[in-house]
Specification:
The protein is of the alpha+beta class. It has helices at about 30-65, 140-195, 200-260, and strands spanning about 75, 80-95, 100, 115-120, 125-130, 135, 260, 265-270, 270, 285, 290-295, 305-310, 320-325, 335-340, 345, 355-360, 375-390, 395-400, 400-410, 410-415, 420, 425-430, 440.
């Protein structure tokens, strides 16, 4: 038989059956009822303690949250220093002074109205000397035109020769007829002289014949002069056409000779851009109205040309300082200033937004700068010295009242602030915070509906008296009536009126 756990020791300590031990006896023998009761009491205390720990801890935590927020969101420190408003844009370096390398200037006179293809072009960035060949243009369109003009010139020459021969022949024939009529007139004169011995009728007939011959010779003389002028006019006509075709052929020959484009001066070759922003290269067309193929820039003066959107351009003015960086060398910084701001916007290719051209002069350029390099331009439009500023993410607005979530120790306060200027990243704090305060970058959920701790004498969120345009009762100021003077004499009434 197994003994109960509360029994101990030897057999002589066991009580005889039917013997009852009294509690509190001095024998020191454990009693079964008392041990079970003690264990039950200890178990209840344990369960009560566990219950308090499980239920009381979350309750205390929630109560602590309601009395003092302890959100662990990201925070930023209120800083004091210089605050700048900067407009950033990307630009491209170019030389404002340059020499154009152009193709033929007389393509229109040569009746070449379509573009001419570039067959060869030296690599961009090549340093050339004056007279070096830079590009070759396609001569095939001008060659066909030259063949047509050559045929027209030959035809004009043939017409000129034919007109010359015709004039010579016609004038020679007219002169011969005049000589014949002069001889006939002389014969008629002899007959007239001999007819004086004849009858009157015969004399009259000889006089008529003489008169007819005289008039015919006189008319032929006038006609000869007219034919001579007519021949000269014909020669001038064919001569003009001949000269025109000859000049056209000469121009075409000069144009064809100019299709070998040479450098007008020494320098570095930089390609120019078409209206669509693409550079002219081998295979592109050279327009007769803009025959330039490249430039020779003066790199002692450089500028960055950039385009600013219509929202930021109102902040810019000539003379503003600019910090420039190069995409090719990000660690290198250059200084510049705004020299020009366009008054009229334009629409760039592949863009729907209107932009304004801004030119930035690079101060102290060196030989490492090259036209076409991409620059980052940071234009300082506003600077405020020694002010407090925080990130924009920390600023909220509720009913026209700007506020931040200021963290102090383990608590968070929804604090009103008075703001100043702002840029893309930060905002100036004029009142409500001090240097070193910590503000939360995201609103804690437990304070979303909390009341804002207002600043003294703050008018933020209040409707101004003149802001409401609704019709209502308005007090109209009236000039006060002066009190009557007892010593004043009564005014005399006007004639015809009763007082």
């Amino acid at each position: 038989m197994i003994s109960p756990p509360w029994h101990s020791g030897s057999a002589n300590q066991r009580a005889a059956p039917g013997v009852t031990h009294r509690m509190g006896s001095s024998t020191g023998i454990p009693q079964p009822g008392l041990s079970m009761l003690a264990r039950l009491v200890r178990t209840k205390w344990f369960l009560a303690t566990a219950f308090l720990l499980v239920v009381g801890t979350p309750t205390a935590w929630l109560m602590a949250r309601s009395s003092g927020p302890t959100s662990d969101g990201l925070t930023a420190t209120v800083k004091k220093g210089d605050f700048k408003v900067v407009v950033t844009s990307s630009g491209e370096l170019r030389a404002p002074k340059f020499v154009n390398i152009t193709g033929p200037q007389q393509m229109q006179q040569a009746e070449v109205y379509s573009g001419v293809k570039i067959l060869s072009l030296v690599a961009e960035g090549t340093t050339v000397k004056e007279g070096d060949v830079v590009a070759e243009l396609d001569r095939s369109p001008v060659a066909s035109k030259m063949a047509d003009v050559s045929l027209a010139l030959q035809k004009a020459q043939a017409l000129h020769e034919q007109a010359s021969l015709d004039s010579t022949l016609n004038l020679s024939k007219a002169r011969e007829e005049m000589r014949t009529k002069a001889l006939t007139l002389e014969e008629k004169k002899l007959a007239k002289d001999q007819s004086k011995y004849e009858a009157p009728s015969v004399q009259r007939q000889t006089e008529i014949d003489y008169e007819r011959s005289f008039r015919g010779l006189k008319q032929d003389s006038v006609d000869y002069i007219t034919k001579n002028e007519q021949a000269k006019a014909k020669m001038r006509e064919v001569g003009t056409d001949l000269a025109r075709q000859g000049n056209k052929l000469k121009i075409i020959q000069e144009v064809m000779g100019s299709f070998t484009i040479k450098a007008p001066a020494s320098g570095m070759v930089i390609y120019i851009k078409d209206w669509n922003g693409k550079k002219r290269a081998v295979g592109t067309q050279v327009s007769p109205w803009d025959p330039s193929v490249a430039t020779l820039p003066d790199m002692s003066i450089m500028e960055s040309v950039t385009f600013v959107n219509e929202i930021d351009v109102r902040k810019l003015s000539v003379g503003m300082p600019v910090a420039l960086s190069l995409d090719a060398d990000p660690d290198r910084k250059l200084a510049g200033k705004v020299t020009s701001v366009a008054n009229v916007g334009e629409q760039r290719p592949n863009s729907d937004a209107k932009v304004f051209e801004v030119k930035v002069e690079v101060q102290k350029p060196d030989t490492t700068l090259r036209p076409g390099m991409t620059t980052g331009n940071s234009i300082e439009t506003f600077v405020q010295k020694n002010v407090l500023h925080i990130p924009l993410e920390a600023l909220g607005n509720e009913g026209g009242v700007p506020f931040v979530y200021r963290r102090s120790g383990s608590g968070v306060t929804k604090q009103e602030v008075e703001t100043g200027a702002l840029n893309d990243d930060e905002v100036v704090i004029a009142r409500g915070l001090v240097e070193g305060d910590r503000v939360m970058l995201s609103p804690p959920p437990e304070l979303g509906t909390a009341a804002i701790s207002r600043l003294p004498n703050s008018r933020a969120g209040q409707k101004s008296p003149g802001a409401d345009t609704a019709v209502g009762k308005r007090t109209v100021p009236v000039k006060p009536t002066p009190a009557p003077d007892k010593n004043a004499k009564p005014a005399r009434s006007a004639p015809g009126r009763k007082g």
